[in-house]
Amino acid sequence: MNALLPVIVAVVGLLVLIGLALFLYTWRTTRKIEAALPPTGRFIDVPGAQLHVVERGTGPAILLVHGLSGQLGNFDYGMIEPLARDFRVVAIDRPAAGYSTRAPGTPADLPAQADTLAALIDKLGLDKPLVVGHSLGGAIALTLASRHPERVGGLALIAPLTHPPEHISPVFEAMTIPSAWKRKLLAWTLLIPMSIRNREQVMDIVFGPDRAPDDFPMRGGGLLAMRPSHFLGASEDLIGAASSLPAVVPHYGTLRMPVHVLYGREDRILDYKLNGEAFAAKVPGARLTLVSGGHMLPVTAIDTSVDFVRNAALQLHEPVSA
Known about the structure:
Layout: H1 5-36, E1 42-46, E2 49-56, E3 61-65, H2 73-76, H3 80-83, E4 88-92, E5 101-102, H4 110-124, E6 130-134, H5 136-147, E7 154-158, H6 180-187, H7 191-197, H8 199-207, H9 216-219, H10 228-248, E8 259-264, H11 272-282, E9 287-291, H12 297-300, H13 302-316
Parallel strand pairs: 3-4, 3-6, 6-7, 7-8, 8-9
Antiparallel strand pairs: 1-2, 2-4, 2-5
Helix pairs in contact: 4-5
């Protein structure tokens, strides 16, 4: 045993050095990402969070809510500018995503995130906005509509999560590690090297069969997802959604505001039959539009997504005939 002690010490020392090197690499890369992609909006305090918000245009309000591991750049890639010609467009980084923060101890489940949106609607004086939710943002928008129906004019959901999935996409498996300290260790050591190594495979699943734009990492803010804080926030979101979504599903039949759904038939993240067709069948008057495409329609099908949101907003504000 004594003979092995120097070897053990050497191995432990080597592992510590490797860990320290990975931590420093992560810290430096994170600083470079944040310098290249600084906040573009203002910060608004609401209970449990400080939200990074971009607001453009005037007119009837549209609130844009991004999905898991996303941020408002997913919408700013191409949707905000054309919508802002006719509407007051408000896009947010959800708590612990992008440049928003979540206060310590604040839950990340769907009701908590819905309550955060309700507080933001009140603070900004949005008059029953059309709430646009992409992916996990769709589940949050639905929870908002069921908990605070008086604050929501209508829903326009793009590739929304509406039912508990049978399987978690391999893209998000690392976020489901049960131990919080192991997720934090991963985030500060191996996350960025793994993200770089697996980028093509991940983009093929997230965007496929559509091609991920070459400028998405910068123009769409994709690089922000590599930061440890963003990964850890998304992990809390995923775990929180898994525990709280089943309780939201029974309320779909009680929704009385206009609900529009846009889904790509080739979506590789969520099943359009379960989250689109089966969902629409449960909601009175829901309108489902199916198109050819994958999960990231706000980036890969900008014109289609803009027209979908614009039409939902215009129908919401059509004058009632006598």
